[in-house]
Predict the structure.
Amino acid sequence: MSNVTNLVTLGERNAASNRDALVVEARDSCAALGVDLDFDRLDWDVTKHCPKAAGKAGQKTVLYFATHDNGTKKNANKRIPLPQPFGSVVKSLVRLQKDGNPGIGADQLNRMINASRYLAPLLADRGYDPCRLVPKDLDDARRAIADRGGKPATHYRLGQQLEKIVAELNRRHILVFAFTWRNPFRRVANTVRIGKQADENRGKIVEEEILDELARLSHIVTGDSDRMRMAGVKLFHCAPWRVGEVNTIPDDPWVERQKIGPDGPVFDAEGRPVIRCGIRYWPEKSEDGDIKWIPDVMVEVARLAIDTLLEVSAEARKLARWYEEHIGRAWLPGPDGGPNQNYTMPEVANMFGLNRYPAARQWLQTRGVPIDDSARAGLVRRGDLELALLKEWQALEYLTRDRRGLKRSQHLFLTLANLHNYRGTNPCMLGMTTDQHFSDFLSTRGDRPEEREEKRQGQVLSVFERYGSTMANGSPMRCKSHGFRHWLNDIAQRGGMGQHLVARWSGRKEIAQNGEYDHMSGVELAEQGRALMADGKVMGILADVHNRLPPVERGAFRDNVMETAHVTDLGMCDHNFFSSPCPEFSGDGCGPCENLNVVKGEPKSRQRALQNRDDTGWLLERALEEMHDETEGASNFVEAHTLTLSALERIIAIHNDPAIPDGTWVRANAESPAQFEGRPLKRQA
């Protein structure tokens, strides 16, 4: 049998050459993630370059370039590496992505790695060579992502990463057969108001029963650990924080500034400056510091919470300043007898807050501290103790290397070591209040029914469990710190706060993200509209009819004309979808519809109206040109676009009218255009 030689085409050689050049660039010419990065390792420790927020539990950040097999194992020896050369290309894309965007975090880098795991096995028949990717591989990866389960939002993000991988391989001419591929997963809409998803969203809000119990417990909790975490919970009540924004507040957070109105500084009736109060913080999803402004009714609560935190953390911050001023030394109580000063096990136990000397021996052995057992109780040198404590101090370096630039002593939620744990508090070393400590405070860890019966060792009881608080039906109380953010957003939405203000107060970059936190159903939105109409804050033909009715009949009228409502790009629609579908969906859009209520001053709706006006004006010009050329049916388009353009001009005029208070619902159209008359197309003469 004759030997068969596979001839390599010029395209294949060029693609392989470009692939290898990519790896060489990332390995040898890129400093992202550290110049000492071991490129060939399966696990990359990127803690120094992608640090977690200071208040997050578990500070080590590792990227695993491994397959899905044993995906939960943190031991790299138990993971299966991505096959070569595919694995090296993925590593290169990740490192160069970090180089191009230094602010990118580990979560986004991990998404690209996770997406690549779906591609790797599909290349097995082609030597795992990414040069030979074809569109079918991406389609198969898409199906694998969908079959694996998970949330739709996760599917969308993984699809984004697959699209990014293909685009980058195309840009660098690494694919033998160039092609484009678009993410087939739809971006998840966060405005669902009915059904299972809406019920789940509303379940994220902290229940009133729990809020009332927290108010009661806030007056009776004792101990520095509970007082500190309860102070954090009070701050959750004052503004829509993320937990990582609260527990990284600096020790000089309070801000007071005079309010500034449209006409300049604001004064009260007696001529005194009107002051607004806020708290300095760093948004989790932004590189810049900001101020979280506190509503006037909650200023006293916030001020007391900050005072409590300053008091409870005072000793820890004082110890941190000592360490910062005495580089290379560790603090121990009592006189300093030099590095050869000896301590017995009971003395060590007493210094470190341990309940008995065997615990002191275990503490020392765990940290490799030499123990002289020639004496009956065992002796340990002061110098060796200080070295062990200095290692603990250095482990807190993550508090200083993030974007905040704070010293350890400037963290308001700094504690003495083990303050929030069942072990004794160590007055010689420091710790940090993390998101896990808040989670334990609000929801018992290990709270599954079988564990509750057995009361297994190591179960961490919540403040509700420790004080015997239960729901009215006897079930255990529990909530999440993020639930307070949902709760305050819901209050703001129901109170009519503008979407741009809700986003600004919550520290969001996009107004569209408000939808995830808007828990009002269509019926509740309609109830808000009826209340506005009753208060005279609705304008238009319906409001005119309402106001002409006898007062005794107005309530029934409001109930009939506003049974449900939902948000649109241009305002609030009160069409009853329970009885019929939208008549304008396939017609002229929301602009000319009689069910549209323009929410005066809402910036997103105004911007959309301006954009729609420009787009409609352009379409009208094209339709007029076609009508001039006697194109059949063009006059129908001219009529429709003229009608829509006129409606959009009315909407913009409402937003620009200074006589209409912001937040007022204004009915822009007396009636909708007829859509179903069976009108024939108008033909040109």
Q: What stands out?
A: Residues 208-312 form one domain. The longest strand covers residues 275-281.
